[in-house]
Write a structure and sequence with these properties.
The protein is mainly alpha-helical. Helix content is 78%, strand content 0%. It starts with 10 loop residues before the first helix and ends with a helix.
Length: 484
C-alpha cells in the first residue's frame, strides 16, 4: 500500500524527527520546575543516569520494533512476539492518542500567549487575571483547533514533504531560540545564583529517594521513550539505514535542550524575583503556573523583555508543535495500519482529536486529570515495550536488530541486562511511588475514581483501557498485523 513505501530521505531527517518528538513543552516548562523542586544540582546526577537506564534502551527497542515491522504500535509488538501479545502495543498507541487529545490544547495555549506577547496584550496586565480570562472563555477551543489544523496540514503532506521538511525548520529554530534566551538570562544581575543552584549538587541530598524517582519520572516523560512515537519514526527508516547512533544522539540532544531551558528559566527567576519567597513560589508552581503566570511579569521587568517574552513563547510553540506533529502521525499511522490512505485518515484524525480534546480545552480540572492519569499510564507503556523485547528474547533481539552491518554504533550486552532487569524494577518503583504519593495527598478519597489526582482515577482509566485492548486485540491484529 502507499503508506508502506514512505521513507525518510536521510539520517539527518530521521534525527531531526526524533529530536522533534522528544523536545517539547516538558523540556521547557516541566524540567526547570522539577529540577528546582528536587534541589537543582543533585537532581541532574540521577537524571543523566536514567537517560542510559530508561530512555536510551527503550528508544532503541522502539526504533527496532518499528523498523522491523513497518507498522505503528498497534501491530509492531505483535509482529515481534505473537499476535496474542499485541494488545500491549495497542495500549501504548492508545495512551499516546489520549495524551495527544490534550497536548493539542497545550499547544493552543502556547500559540495564544505567543500572539498575546507579540501584540503587547501581556504588558502591564495581571497575569492571573489574563490566564483566568483566557481559560474560562471559548478561546482555548479556538487555539486548540488552530494547533490541530497546523499539525494535520503538515502530516497530510506525508513523511518527506511534511514531517521531515517541517522539522528541518523547527528544530534548528528551537535550539537557536533556546540559546538566545539562555545567553540573555545568564547576563542578568543575580543570574549566577540560578547557575549555582542548577549545577552545584548537594551530594548528601542524593540519599533522598524522591530525588531519584523524580529524575526517573522526568526522563520517562521527556525522552518520549515508551510512547510508541519512535516506533512510528522507525517504520519510515530506510532498510539499509541504521538508527542506533540516531537514537543516542537524539536522547542526548533532548537532555541538552532541557539544560539550556533550565538555564534560561532558572536564571531569569532567580535574577528577577523580588525575594527568596517569590523565587520558591514561582518554582513550586504547576507547569502552567510557572509558564503562564510567573514568567510573563518577570519578562516584563527585564530589560529588553518586550522582545524576549515573544521570543520565549515562540520557542515554546516550536517545541510544542514539533512534538505534536509526531503524536498526530502516531494516531494517523494507527488508522493507516487499518488500511486507510493518508488522504482519508488525516481529516479523520484531526476531527477525532478536536472532539476528544474539547473537555480539556473547556475545563482545567479535566485537563489536569488527564495529564495525571495518562502520565502514569506512560510508565506502563515503557514497561510493555521492555516486555516485548523480553518475550522476543533480549539477546536474540539485540543481535538481530541492534548489531547489523548498517549500524555505525553497535549495542553491547548491557542492553540485555537493562531491558530485562533494570527497567522492570524502575517500573515497579515508579508505580508504587506515584500511587503512594497520590494516596497520601488524597487522604481518605484516594480511591475516588472521579478525583482529579487520585489512585482510583488511574485504576479506572488505565484498567478500562487495558480491558478494551484485550477485547479488540484480535480484530485489530487481523487488519493491522497481517502483511499487505
Amino acid at each position: 500500500m502507499e503508506h508502506t513505501r514512505e521513507r525518510f530521505t536521510s539520517k539527518w531527517g530521521v534525527l531531526l524527527a526524533t529530536i522533534g518528538m522528544a523536545v517539547g513543552t516538558g523540556n521547557i516548562w516541566r524540567f526547570p520546575r522539577i529540577a528546582a523542586q528536587n534541589g537543582g544540582g543533585e537532581f541532574l546526577i540521577p537524571w543523566i543516569l536514567f537517560l542510559f537506564l530508561w530512555g536510551i534502551p527503550l528508544l532503541l527497542a522502539e526504533f527496532a520494533l518499528g523498523k522491523s515491522s513497518r507498522r505503528g504500535p498497534a501491530a509492531a509488538i505483535g509482529a515481534a512476539t505473537a499476535p496474542r501479545h499485541n494488545w500491549m502495543g495497542l495500549f501504548v498507541g492508545l495512551v499516546t492518542c489520549a495524551i495527544t487529545f490534550y497536548y493539542s490544547v497545550v499547544t493552543g495555549w502556547c500559540l495564544k500567549y505567543l500572539v498575546g506577547a507579540s501584540f503587547g496584550e501581556l504588558a502591564g496586565v495581571d497575569a492571573n487575571g489574563y490566564w483566568e480570562s483566557f481559560t474560562t472563555s471559548a478561546q482555548p477551543i479556538l487555539f486548540h483547533g488552530i494547533a490541530l489544523l497546523v499539525g494535520c496540514f503538515v502530516i497530510y503532506r506525508g513523511i518527506v514533504a511534511g514531517l521531515e521538511r517541517a522539522n528541518r525548520v523547527l528544530i534548528p529554530t528551537l535550539f537557536a531560540l533556546l540559546l538566545i534566551a539562555a545567553i540573555r538570562a545568564v547576563t542578568l544581575p543575580g543570574a549566577s545564583e540560578g547557575l549555582r543552584f542548577l549545577f552545584v549538587p548537594d551530594f548528601a541530598a542524593l540519599g533522598n529517594y524522591q530525588v531519584w524517582l523524580a529524575a526517573l519520572t522526568q526522563t520517562a516523560w521527556s525522552t518520549g521513550a515508551g510512547w510508541g512515537l519512535v516506533m512510528v519514526i522507525g517504520a519510515y527508516v530506510a532498510t539499509r539505514q541504521g538508527f542506533v547512533k540516531t537514537a543516542v544522539t537524539a536522547a542526548l540532544a533532548n537532555n541538552a535542550a532541557s539544560l539550556i531551558a533550565g538555564i534560561a528559566v532558572l536564571c531569569t527567576v532567580f535574577a528577577l524575583s523580588t525575594s527568596e519567597e517569590a523565587t520558591m513560589a514561582a518554582l513550586s508552581a504547576s507547569n502552567e503556573g510557572l509558564t503562564f503566570l510567573w514568567l510573563p511579569p518577570l519578562f516584563e521587568a527585564m530589560p529588553g523583555g518586550a522582545f524576549l517574552m515573544p521570543l520565549f513563547f515562540l520557542t515554546l510553540c516550536c517545541a510544542a508543535i514539533s512534538s505534536l506533529l509526531t503524536q498526530l502521525e502516531l494516531v494517523n499511522r494507527m488508522v493507516m495500519d487499518m488500511g486507510v490512505s493518508r488522504k482519508r485518515s488525516v481529516p479523520l484524525v484531526g476531527a477525532a482529536c478536536f472532539v476528544c480534546g474539547l473537555p480539556s480545552a473547556m475545563a482545567l480540572g479535566f485537563f489536569r486529570n488527564q495529564d495525571w492519569a495518562w502520565g502514569a499510564a506512560l510508565i506502563f507503556s515503557g514497561f510493555f515495550v521492555a516486555v516485548a523485547v523480553i518475550r522476543r528474547g533480549a539477546r536474540r533481539f539485540r543481535r538481530e536488530q541492534l548489531t547489523g552491518d548498517h549500524e555505525e554504533w553497535r549495542v553491547g550486552p548491557w542492553f540485555e541486562k537493562v531491558i530485562t532487569w533494570v527497567i522492570p524494577l524502575e517500573f515497579a518503583a515508579l508505580m508504587v511511588w506515584w500511587m503512594w504519593q497520590a494516596a497520601i495527598s488524597s487522604g481518605t478519597a484516594w480511591w475516588d475514581p472521579f478525583g482529579e489526582f487520585t489512585v482510583g482515577t488511574v485504576i479506572l482509566q488505565v484498567g478500562l483501557l487495558i480491558l478494551l485492548c484485550l477485547a479488540i486485540n484480535r480484530a485489530v491484529w487481523r487488519r493491522a498485523g497481517t502483511d499487505r
